Amino acid sequence: MYRGTFAIVDVGAIRKNVAAIKTLLTDDTRLMVTVKANGYGHGALQTARAAIAGGATDFGVASVEEGVCLRKAGIQEPILVLGVTSRPGAQAAAAAGLAVTVTEIWDDLPDGYFHPPLAVHVKSDTGMGRLGLRNGNDLVRLVQWVSARSDMRWQGVFTHLACADGEDYTHVDGQIEKFGAVIDQLRTENLDPPLIHASNSAGTLRNRNWHYGMVRVGISAYGYPPADNFLVPVTLTPALHLYSFITRVETLAPGDTVGYGATFVAQRATRVATLPIGYADGYFRRFSNRAYVIVRGEKAPVIGNVCMDQLMVDVTDLANVQVGDCATLYGRQASADWQASKVLPLPEDDQVRWLSATWSAARTGAVLSLDTLAAVGSTISYEIMCALASRVPRIYVDSFGENFDRANSSSV
Ligand SMILES: *Cc1c(COP(=O)(O)O)cnc(C)c1O
Hints:
The strands form three sheets. Strands 1, 10, 11, 14, 15, 16, 17, 18, 19 and 20 form a ten-stranded mixed sheet that branches. The protein is 27% helix and 22% strand. The chain has helices spanning 11-22, 36-40, 44-54, 64-72, 87-96, 136-148, 170-188, 201-206, 348-361, 370-376, 381-387, and strands spanning 5-10, 30-34, 58-61, 79-84, 99-102, 118-123, 152-158, 196-197, 214-217, 240-245, 248-252, 257-258, 264-265, 270-275, 292-295, 298-303, 311-314, 326-332, 367-368, 394-397. Residues 34, 36, 60, 82, 160, 200-201, 216-220, 226 line the site of pyridoxal-5'-phosphate.
């Protein structure tokens, strides 16, 4: 790492979160962890491995390509492509041993098109208004078609809840009721679903009656509640933490300005610290003049417009801020060891060793929650996680590991 901006991904937190969620399930309920969008920015493969260690049985992805990556890396658990898949995509999925979501009858498709046979989950739209069949009769016909083919295997039926994280249960209760009716209709037609699933994190954490045969969790596995004020019945630990080392500290005179568009004008002598991180790293331009970072345990407001690769913060009211101090963009506050750090002159291996060891040792630092940052930027934690750019090096640590050492950590 030559630039001084990096993320810590705590795979121990993911493992622990998954294990905690598992305590809410009956023994025969499967636990899918959704690892789409590169594991919500954390790294799909690293997340999958940690999740397996925590008791995950299945994985959810958005595309065939994401599933194929996991297969190529050796993940052997069932993987379901949750999004829509084209016919050639489904053919590739069959070849890779992925299950796909099917929502229409492809009647011109010759039997034998898929080899080995394609695993299929059908989707019922009970109120998300996004994907799936809205009508029970159509779903029955689809399942009959799938079941009649020799090159498809019907594995399950599912729906997706739109408001399970809300304070008002009316919408989710309506969805569950509709879904129940659809399942009854399938059973009446002698189509007993091999697997039924409906719940995201919110549904999983909120009501055991919504678990069916499998739950599908994402955000909670990564250590965040589905919504800021959501009451979570287990302890969740955030896994993603973002840091950047200060590259310059300068004092501006009253009237001096900061950033493109000169949107910040100094009203007093202002100490400005520059960080080598910007919107191209996933720190949104929307945070300009609104968010804050943590430096030496205190809030430093983001001033001026966030640039593509850099941003500026006001450190006037903070004592002793120096070049090389570590700013926390989100996640657990940087270790006290990271002030005026000498990490950048170190060789890569030593950086990783030092950063992961000092991070893991500092267990007690307060957390700048993604929910707090999301509120400032009028978004949700999910979007900030997923936006973390591939150019930001991830350092993988396992702070809950029995014998945490360098072998557990690596950067990519
Ligand atoms: C992403 C996703 C989930 C997981 O949602 P979280 O709110 O992150 O738990 C569940 N089901 C489907 C269909 C999804 O696409």
